[in-house]
Amino acid sequence: MAHPPVLALRGVSKRFGGVQALVDVDLQIRAGEVVALAGDNGAGKSTLVKVISGVNPADRGAIEWEGRLVQIKRPHDAHALGIATVYQDLAMCDNLDVVGNLFLGREIDRVGVLDEVEMERRARDLMRALSIRLPDVRMPVAALSAGQRQAVAISRSLMGAPKVLLLDEPTAALGVEQTSHLLDLIEEVRDHGMAIILISHNMGDIKAVADRVAVLRLGRNNGLFDVSSVTQEQIISAVTGAADNAVAHRSKGDEGAWP
Amino acid sequence: MSRGGSQRDGEPAGTERGAVPVTADGRPRTRGWSDGLRAYALEIRGIFQGGERGPLVVIAGLIVIWIVFQALDDKFLSPRNLSNLSVEIVGTGLVAVGIVFVLLIREIDLSVGSVSGLAGAAFAVLNVNQGWPEWTAVIVAVAAGTAVGAFHGFFFAWLGVPAFVVTLAGLLIWNGLTLYLLGASGTINIDEEGLVASLTSRHFEDPAAAYAVAALGTAGYFLAAHRRRSRHRAAGMPYRQTAEIWTRTGVLALVAFAAAYTLNRFQGLPLALLIFLAVLVVSDYVLRRTRYGRRVYALGGGVEAARRAGIGVERVRVAMFMVSGTLAAFGGLFVASSLTSASPTTARAAGSGMLLINAIAAAVIGGTSLFGGRGSPWSVLLGVLVIQSIASGMGLLGVEDAVQFMITGGVLLAAVAADALTRRAEARRGRP
Ligand SMILES: Nc1ncnc2c1ncn2[C@@H]1O[C@H](COP(=O)(O)OP(=O)(O)O)[C@@H](O)[C@H]1O
Ligand SMILES: [Mg+2]
């Protein structure tokens, strides 16, 4: 492809105290592409998401955005680039209503005074556009079901028309119908040129929407596959480490860090 | 499975501008006349089911307290006593408004009693002993409160020391500093005709003043409600019925003019009350209607979500302790004003925590939660009326200090217990 990847990570490492969560991780994604990120619990998937979204910046490594080197040190940096994130824990402000959470940190205002009517109007429009049904956009999110929270979190991420969307296990809390609705949505925004990194344990979901699968194991790259040509077993063995991929080069020294 | 429209550039497809939004079951979202009544009934039921421990319960409690004290001593509801009450609530009330800011971000400031004592002493020392002009001394005393708040905020937000420990240390430190400042001179009497003394002694005797404030407040409420209604209606969103707005305005007018009438039967509108109301209006507006206020509530509802949304969590935290320190100092000037002195005895009393407990109790009784993210400055008005009514009533009846302590402590305990129960009820009804 002629265009450089919209987002490229090179040699990203991240350490939490005694835990080396990421070691020399590489990842690239192009516009209009869905890359699935697979890996066992504790493999470092969520940590990688937080590196990209600026919540937990990397210790080492380079991040390129549309071919140029960038620094992502704060959530604001990622947002300014056009990176939106749906976190695994769906953290929200339980005391605020749906509108308040959708616009948190980017409220519509006139000289500092909130324009509640305009925010509510846009929230309704967005919910309708995404076919999300909520009893009321003015209800506090504490009263939402897990699936509804998920829907609000995804709407929030799509609001700024991002170029890269990070979804950390978005289907974990969803039922069958909601999941297929979400997968539809992913395909649709992909068709509009968005790049999506989808973290999922579900091989069915991965096969359904992803173009490529990157596997993380113990914080390192452990394989990159084309979804069209890989079997489910190959992905699973890369995830579990039954077949250590050539890409993975584990040094003995780091082994001790893992419980 | 149907697909939604695209949301590129934030302009969703298939939007009919100006159309009336429709609920999932296909009914328009505007409330009709009967729907309005039904919704109102549901609202009231909601309040009594404990979900929203609404102001109605507190108002009922206040009425009971007033009736009981009036029965025990018929001077209690006299214009004179009520007028004095409206001044007495201001010192504690201002401190409590500061506490509300801190409670909203789910923290606590235990130093406010000491800080208010410090401000009173600093003013007295600077003005009386050092001969500074009153205005300068006032500004320095209040700024000292702001600085103290910044100091607490720094230890809490940047060094990660739990706020209750930082401010507990502050409680002792600032009380110590107050005693140290007063040490050389002992009791300092402040100018009885001066600026600070007038904070609690000045009344606008012209009856027109109290009525004008009542009229202004009522009209302001009505216009704001009406404007909201028009905007919501124009945007095709649910809005309050005109009848409901008129009812609310009517109730407000009744209370406001009754208060003005009562105040005018004594010495007119107290300056202190006017200042307190102004502080309430401004802080409520900032918290509920501005972008900055939204950040404050966000911090109380979920720090992690706030951080991820790009909110500068540390800066907001420091700012809230600064607000609390500032209002504690300002409240302290009202306390000094009503005593027209600053003395080691009152400083020790400030350190003993009575003001602190009253302020926390006032905030929590009014409906501000200790668990963060819920409440408003207006809650303080009701809460502090309850607290000061009890104090004033016990004073009239000559109840001794020992008993007053136990009763005040008991009221605080009851208020926080109710807060905790509300929270549990919410958690049960919240996420399944
Ligand atoms: N904030 C943190 N502090 C300390 N350790 C962390 C933190 N976040 C993640 N970790 C550790 O990093 C490793 C990777 O975690 P995570 O990225 O959540 O894995 P995954 O999402 O793939 O299940 C785990 O060992 C986890 O305990
Ligand atoms: Mg994870």
TrEMBL record, chain A:
SMART domains: AAA. One of its GO terms (molecular function) is ATP hydrolysis activity. Keywords: ATP-binding, Lyase, Nucleotide-binding. Gene3D superfamilies: P-loop containing nucleotide triphosphate hydrolases. Pfam families: ABC_tran. InterPro entries: AAA+_ATPase, ABC_carbohydrate_import_ATPase, ABC_transporter-like_ATP-bd, ABC_transporter-like_CS, P-loop_NTPase. PROSITE patterns: ABC_TRANSPORTER_1 (PS00211), ABC_TRANSPORTER_2 (PS50893). Residues 7-243 form the ABC transporter domain. This is Phosphonate C-P lyase system protein PhnK. It comes from Streptomyces viridochromogenes (strain DSM 40736 / JCM 4977 / BCRC 1201 / Tue 494). The lineage of its organism: Bacteria, Bacillati, Actinomycetota, Actinomycetes, Kitasatosporales.
TrEMBL record, chain B:
The chain crosses the membrane at residues 54-72, 84-105, 112-129, 135-157, 164-188, 208-224, 245-263, 269-287, 318-337, 349-371, 378-397, 403-422. Its main location: membrane. It is a multi-pass membrane protein. Residues 1-11 have a biased composition (Basic and acidic residues). Pfam families: BPD_transp_2. It comes from the Bacteria. It is found in: Cell membrane. One of its GO terms (cellular component) is plasma membrane. Keywords: Cell inner membrane, Cell membrane, Membrane, Sugar transport, Transmembrane, Transmembrane helix, Transport. Residues 1-30 are annotated as: Disordered. One of its GO terms (molecular function) is transmembrane transporter activity. Part of the binding-protein-dependent transport system for D-xylose. Probably responsible for the translocation of the substrate across the membrane. This is Xylose transport system permease protein XylH. It comes from Streptomyces viridochromogenes (strain DSM 40736 / JCM 4977 / BCRC 1201 / Tue 494).
